[in-house]
Amino acid sequence: MSTRIAFLKGHGTENDFVIVPDPENTVDLPPAAVAALCDRRAGLGGDGLLHVVRSAAHPDARHLAAEAEWFMDYRNGDGSVAEMCGNGVRVFARYLQRAGHAAEGDLVIATRGGVKTVHLAKNGDVTVGMGRALLPEGDVVVSVGERSWPARNVNMGNPHAVAHVADLDHAGDLYTAPSVGPAGAYPDGVNVEFVVDRGPRHVAMRVHERGSGETRSCGTGACAVAVATARRDGADPAVTGTPATYTVDLPGGTLVITERPDGEVEMTGPAVIVAEGEFDSAWLEGVLATTTTG
Ligand SMILES: N[C@@H](CCC[C@H](N)C(=O)O)C(=O)O
Predict the structure, then answer these.
(1) Which atom of ligand 1 is nearest to the CA of 160?
(2) One domain for residues 183 and 249
(3) Do 260 and 281 have their domain in common?
(4) Tens digits of per-residue pLDDT, 129-187?
(5) What are the positions of the active site (predicted)?
């Protein structure tokens, strides 16, 4: 029997998501279903999917239920699972506010990368406590075609390789993933950021995301870029004792990232719900049947 399944569409600096509210975790979303929903021609379209589930109802978040009522079960556009999505958390919070599950002010959201603190400001901005960046030792190299750049390995819950480049066009069309070495540096894949300077504590970037391709913004990527750039600039807050704030321009908008002396990274940016509707479960079952039978 076919049923109607509710969804919304939202974006944060044009990193866009299909949102599936499913408090009791009753909607089956295998990778092929997520990929079909995120398909921009045959589906609803999105860089990723935000499955909105009560923490208590999801096996990956049950242990966090006492701390955070809601779990962001984030999936990339190809259906793969990722630990964290910075733009996604802001949009997730905006959805909770719209649905009456959260009010302006502070809230917490469980993710696979831990519990995140979120502030929904009156002016529409959303600030997320992203936790600490990890900077694993070891040289990393990013290559596109004939060009290669040394890069910084930054983990924001999910993996990033940040390359400072002379010109963002040198990253090419990014239709395929850049190569990142040495082999084995990122056993689970990596998000790759290309960065140029725009002014003092002001950079611009492009990103190729694991599981989604080039996107118009990446929140964890912007945080990784700010942290890597602060290290390059000799502005490590743990050393200077003062916060380092970077303005990060992305193709889809601007994010402001602050790293504090205690290592905590905060990200501020917009979050917008664009539309809401329903899709037919029969459509999705049909797509899945075709995928399974080839
Ligand atoms: N766009 C996101 C990051 C989404 C996850 C990423 N593609 C991964 O696989 O780690 C963001 O805003 O952080």
Answers:
(1) 10
(2) yes
(3) no
(4) 999 999 999 889 999 999 999 999 999 999 999 999 999 999 999 999 999 999 999 99
(5) 85, 218
ipTM: 0.99
155 touches ligand 1 (CB under 6 Å): no
- 38 Cβ below 6 A of ligand 1: no
Assigned token pair, 261: 């002396």
Do residues 17 and 50 lie in contact, with contact meaning Cβ atoms separated by under 8 Å? yes
- The burial class, CB within 10 Å (0-12 / 13-18 / 19+), for 151 is buried
Task: Output the CA torsion sign for 64, 66, 67, 69.
Answer: positive
Asked whether 152 and 114 are in contact (CB, 8 A), the reply is no
Paired strand residues for 182: none
Question: What is the helix (H) or strand (E) element at residue 115, kind and residue range?
Answer: strand 114-120
Secondary structure of residue 88 in the 3-state scheme: helix
The answer to the question of residue 134 being in a domain is no
The tokens describing 20, both together, are: 């599936």
> pLDDT confidence of 294, banded at 50, 70, 90?
low
